[in-house]
């Protein structure tokens, strides 16, 4: 018998954990900083609610409807066809994403360790230089990558209820609490108003075609849709849970955490004269600067980094899970052994990304480092591509009555709501993704 989530709350928090992680806390602030601030934030919200939310419901429906992990789910729902390519696409996307995601996880792990020993915050410290020193060391970067993956694999190997769900029930609520504390402190800095205006006052003249694609990609990245992670997660779900309610809860939590991230980061960026378009290192320069201005700053920084690390792990769990579940489905293979083998292969694949800030800094793929190229491939090609294929599967292949039953199960919504969702998935979602992608390439 397959494992299942023990509670509705456990499933929602685990799904939110899979979605939030680095997407909302690490990536969202610097993507917003690089793409005009408030206008990017509004586009992100619009894409999340109009495109991302229906897709999240779709992945939930596919997973619970099939009661199978990503690859087998499509085989079961569309036997004898090639639709299982969507699941394989998702597993490949999760693998690539985890390879560079774990590099950032390693950075946070190292920062957390340094903070616990009181070596991050110091008078007159240059936090930009500190970040450059850490990422510029091949040994430190690769060690962080390996340690992060080892911890993630260890937790996933315990299974759904005893590993992933138990960890998320503790980690996610604590993260929200600490984020709110950080926001309260950040908005009281001198010069914070300029940062708030940058984040909350939209200037659409700063939005480019590429920025629109990035906003769409960020909405998918932040909700973890497009690589069938949520198909795998919902396959462990019972019929007593409302899928639309769960998807709405995850989406709202995701937008809320993104809002908190912006409110916490940009006031500090402008107060300390940092550059909002700094890129992936933005968070690592801003957090120490903010906590250094608080009483017991090193202690609070340590606690926040640990909780942030937990949030990153919750996303890593989902990526390891989709790969592990696909490799063990219908086979007499040890879940624990497959999880550890997965971690080893991802570790090897992640080494070039870990070396992108040092040894391989001058090695470029289409003008991008291995780290940035991997991020671009997943965020702007594989996630939108996966979402496009899922929309086609919903609109063209999946049994309508099965979809309606899953959509309405344990829900107070009526058949009309299902029809609205179905038409959005059939027409609005694929057309929007295609138009945005073609527009970003300058074709239309």
Automatic annotation (TrEMBL):
User: Which Pfam family name is an example for this entry?
Assistant: SNF
Q: Which positions are tagged coiled coil? A: none
Instruction: Please give, as recorded in its UniProt entry, the membrane topology of this protein.
Output: Multi-pass membrane protein
Please give the superkingdom of this protein's source: Bacteria
Sorted keywords for this record are: Membrane, Symport, Transmembrane, Transmembrane helix, Transport
Q: Which InterPro entries match?
A: Na/ntran_symport (IPR000175), SNS_sf (IPR037272), YocR/YhdH-like (IPR047218)
Q: Which CDD domains match?
A: SLC6sbd_Tyt1-Like
Write out the transmembrane intervals: 9-28, 40-62, 83-110, 130-158, 170-192, 212-233, 245-270, 299-326, 338-356, 376-396, 424-443
Q: What is its main location?
A: membrane
The cellular location(s) given in this protein's UniProt record come to: Membrane
The cross-references to NCBIfam families, in alphabetical order and at most eight, read: Na_transp
**Which family is this protein grouped under?**
Belongs to the sodium:neurotransmitter symporter (SNF) (TC 2.A.22) family.
Cite the PANTHER family for this sequence.
TRANSPORTER (PTHR42948)
Which named protein is this? Transporter
């Amino acid at each position: 018998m397959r494992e299942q989530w023990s509670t509705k709350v456990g499933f929602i928090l685990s799904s939110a954990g899979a979605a939030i992680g680095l997407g909302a806390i690490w990536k969202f602030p610097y993507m917003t900083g690089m793409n005009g601030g408030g206008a990017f934030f509004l586009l992100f919200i619009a894409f999340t609610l109009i495109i991302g939310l229906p897709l999240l419901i779709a992945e939930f429906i596919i997973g619970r409807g099939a009661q199978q992990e990503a690859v087998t789910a499509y085989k079961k729902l569309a036997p004898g066809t090639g639709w299982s390519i969507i699941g394989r696409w998702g597993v490949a996307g999760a693998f690539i994403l985890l390879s560079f995601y774990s590099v950032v996880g390693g950075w946070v792990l190292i920062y957390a360790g340094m903070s616990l020993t009181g070596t991050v915050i110091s008078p007159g410290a240059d936090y930009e230089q500190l970040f450059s020193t850490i990422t510029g060391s091949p040994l430190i970067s690769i060690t962080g990558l390996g340690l992060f993956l080892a911890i993630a694999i260890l937790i996933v190997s315990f299974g759904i209820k005893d590993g992933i769900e138990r960890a998320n029930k503790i980690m996610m609520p604590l993260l929200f609490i600490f984020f709110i504390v950080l926001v309260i402190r950040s908005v009281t800095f001198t010069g914070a108003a300029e940062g708030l205006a940058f984040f909350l006052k939209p200037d659409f003249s700063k939005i480019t075609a590429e920025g629109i694609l990035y906003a769409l990609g960020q909405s998918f990245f932040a909700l973890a849709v497009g690589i069938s992670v949520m198909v795998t997660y919902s396959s462990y779900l019972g019929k007593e849970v409302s899928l639309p309610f769960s998807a709405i809860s995850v989406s709202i939590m995701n937008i809320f955490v993104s809002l908190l991230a912006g409110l916490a980061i940009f006031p500090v960026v402008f107060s300390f004269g940092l550059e909002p378009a700094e890129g992936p290192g933005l968070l690592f320069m801003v957090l120490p600067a903010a906590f250094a201005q608080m009483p017991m700053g090193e202690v609070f920084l340590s606690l926040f980094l640990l909780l942030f690390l937990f949030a990153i792990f919750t996303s890593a769990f989902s990526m390891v899970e989709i790969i592990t579940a696909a490799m063990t489905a219908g086979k007499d293979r040890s879940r624990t052994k497959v999880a550890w083998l997965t971690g080893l292969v991802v570790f090897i694949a992640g080494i070039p990304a870990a070396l992108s800030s040092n040894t391989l800094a001058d090695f470029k793929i289409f003008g991008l480092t291995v780290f940035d190229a991997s991020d671009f491939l997943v965020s702007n090609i594989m996630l939108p591509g996966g979402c496009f294929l899922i929309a086609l599967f919903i609109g063209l292949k999946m049994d309508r009555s099965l979809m309606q039953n899953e959509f309405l199960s344990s829900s107070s919504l009526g058949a009309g709501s299902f029809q609205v969702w179905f038409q959005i998935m059939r027409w609005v979602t694929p057309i929007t993704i295609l138009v945005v992608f073609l527009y970003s390439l300058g074709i239309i």
